Amino acid sequence: MAFNHLPAGVHDALVPLSVTPVTDSVPMAKNLRSDRSPAGPGSRPEPGTILTRLAAGPNRAARITHTEHLPPRPGRHAVWPDRIRPEVVAAVQAAGIEHPWAHQATAAEHALDGDSVVVATGTASGKSLAYLVPVLSALLDGSEAPNGRGATALYLAPTKALAADQCRSVKELSQPLGTSVRAAVYDGDTPVEEREWIRQYGTYVLTNPDMLHRGILPSHPRWSSFLKSLKYVVIDECHTYRGVFGSHVAQVLRRLRRLCARYGASPVFLLASATAAEPAVAARRLTGLPVVEVADDASPRGELVFALWEPPLTDMEGEKGAPVRRTATAEAADLLTDLTVQGLRSITFVRSRRGAELISVIAQERLAEVDRSLSRRVAAYRGGYLPEERRALERALHSGELLGLAATNALELGLDISGLDAVVIAGYPGTRASLWQQAGRAGRSGQGALAVLVARDDPLDTFLVHHPEALFDQPVESTVLDPDNPYVLAPHLCAAAAELPLTEEDLPLFGPACEELLPQLEEARLLRRRTRAWHWTRRERAAELTDIRGEGGRPVQVVEAGTGRLLGTVDAGAAHTTVHEGAVHLHQGRTYLVRTLDLEDSVALVEQATPTYSTVARDTTAISVLETDTEVPWGAGRLCYGSVEVTNQVVSFLRRRLITGEVLGETKLDLPPRTLRTRAVWWTVTEDQLDAARINPEILGGALHAAEHASIGMLPLFATCDRWDIGGVSVPLHPDTLLPTVFVYDGHPGGAGFAERAFHTARDWLTATREAIASCECEAGCPSCIQSPKCGNGNDPLHKRGAVRLLTVLLRGAETTETTNAGP
After folding, report:
1. Closest alpha carbon to 344 in 43, 143, 59, 73
2. What's the number of CA atoms in the CB half-sphere (13 Å) around residue 47?
3. Which residues contact 700 (CB under 8 A, 6 or more apart)?
4. d(CA 411, CA 252)
5. pLDDT tens digits, residue range 419-466?
């Protein structure tokens, strides 16, 4: 029997094989305040005082496992390059910024020199102003051109909300410049009647990679005037472009560069990133161009108090009698309630849409008990809301009407929210870079701030709150992306050929994998070669071959059956597990039951209900080895990396009582299987190693399964992934290896670079996994060590002590091999 651990988001990729989500935002408006004085003494409580108040409740102080104090830092000023137009400098000064920080001036100088540059500094450090000043100066120069349009600039943001917020800020800043800067948002929410005006007259167009891929590039003749004048391309929050999404965006940018070259333009790329390891390397991989790095942060910083918070154990028992901690959701809802009662502005970041809804509902109910008017000052914000719902929440947050918000990273990547007093992070967000960006959303007017990381009942979260050095003494991660992934590259070659016939001179732009892929695309009759160029052969739009966010097709519309009202959408890849027939679905605090899921029409019909249970999908997974790229001996065992095929099917769902998690029943489902070809790391052990670890056949499956769960939970500490981006399978006797084997694989077609990173850091990764299991205080395994929230086998079987012994023997073999290879 194989024990599987399927990544959320893998469902988007599990489709018949054919050519087919962090992270955080620091929008522009905050930079207009980056040089202003912080709030005066006494106007806000100190962050330490806020934490003391939060810890004052019954048994709360013991939940704080560590407190980190980051002292304030003074800023270093410079002067703008003398090539910046004086009108632009005057507009910036009118916005309250007398002098730039040193890194802003340095980045602007590179931009003026025609060097592509990445600014990788901390939250609220003024990155947006660093690129906006040279852009506005160029647009002002262009307004004096004979044709009246002159230079243009394109801004790319990972979310619609961020682009909309940036547009508001740009208009405010450029108001003294008159009509020379015509900024406009061009995305899926832009009314049709505005789009033609933007194409003809816009000089600063703000959009997202999705719209560039599906709308602008395929219609490039209508954008010819804009593209031939393109001076700058701004890529905001470029650290979010990682994994498969980042690989797709890299190819979209290469298509943009190719079309610009055909129109005679060679734009300079200006990138803004969170603090990251080797930002210039990641930016070069993303754009395909040499990029200069500016990473010396010269901006001031207020004091930050960062607390690690572990919810207490409860009297309840979970699966297999495991001890259960109070959920991070309930704990974060309490903290959000307390902060709101104190009149403090805060955001609670939550990992899931459902979690955001639950936290807001719980906080509203508790606030109503204190003061009914307070309950209206807390809300949820997540992806899947309709545009008008999002905009209303954004306005309320900007105006201060809302004090508290429970948000997914749809907001983390969205808006300027200056002056927050506290950030609560319900569960480790997956990377240290994302953690620091979320924490940085508070204190952005210069005042001190509080950040609280509330640990989930999860191996990685538990490890981190008891090993603070892994958070505070380690550098942030490198960004992982692979533009040469054939599953990514192939549809973009088709899209490029549809935009303009693809010539041999174009191929170096798209990378070395082109030569192998083009014959396959010809054989599939997607491309046809005529003389020296490849042409798109189909009637349908080539851009529709792939969803660049890896979501595997049209989102499923969630529709209220009685009224026909559209409630929102669910990613196609998540539909089998979240809106299957009988699933409980939450939307803006209301509970619905899914009556039918129509996969052909991508519609889930729901009815409002008040069930006393939640639902969890169960699935089965099989995996086969297609090709082993590399392997190393670990004693008698082997560590391998290569290509695999994963077949998954959702087969049933469990109904669990809301309060206790007790299983009330299981219902079978009839959903089609889906297949994924991807990359994986796997390790094997021999009978001699099992004997050394005292692993008998009765506990072998549980030991392997437990090691698989824990290793998946710990991988985000070593690769820029989320545990929901990866999956796993453990097999007591795998038909391809003929040995007990544990697989960990990327949940995206062709891989995302996570398994490869796991292979190269395997010894450190599995050592941390073993330590996380061994140090957990539970007796036989719990969600803090070996139980998984998304196990397709209901966390059965699992054997905690067997997993520790197994990993000990495996790692001893790795040490022996390394010692032998090192020689005398």
Report:
1. 43
2. 29
3. 690, 732, 740, 802
4. 24
5. 678 999 999 887 787 888 888 878 765 678 999 999 988 788 888 898
Cβ atoms < 10 Å from Cβ of 645: 16
Tokens of 117: 């540059």
Tokens of 292: 């200069």
Strand partners, 637: 634
Say which amino acid occupies 309.
Answer: W
pLDDT, one tens digit per residue, over 786-795 is: 888 667 677 7
Q: What is the share, in percent, of the chain residues with pLDDT greater than 90?
A: 56
Give strand ranges (E) for 635-713.
637-657, 663-668, 674-684
Query: From CA 630, how far away is CA 591, in angstroms rounded?
Result: 49
Neighbouring-strand partners of residue 118: 271, 293
CA 331 to chain CA centroid, nearest Å: 23
The interaxial angle of helices 160-174 and 387-399, nearest 10 deg, is: 50
SS (H, E, C) 412-424: HCCCCCCCECEEE
Structure-token match 């006393």, residue found:
612
Tokens 């899926």 correspond to what residue? Answer: 188
Distances (CA, A) of 726 to 33, 625, 713, 746: 40, 17, 10, 5
The whole-angstrom separation of Cα 398 and Cα 80 is: 30
| Average pLDDT value over all residues in the chain | 86
Question: Which residues, in sequence order, are CB contacts of 191 under 8 Å at separation 6+?
Answer: none
Question: Is residue 162 within 8 Å of residue 236, measured between CB atoms?
Answer: yes
Q: Model confidence over 1-33: pLDDT tens digits? A: 454 554 443 333 333 222 222 222 223 333 333
Distance between CA atoms of residues 596 and 572, nearest Å: 15
> What are the two backbone dihedrals, phi and then psi, of residue 443, each rounded to the nearest 5 degrees?
75, 25
The amino acid at residue 614 is S
pTM value surpassing 0.90: no
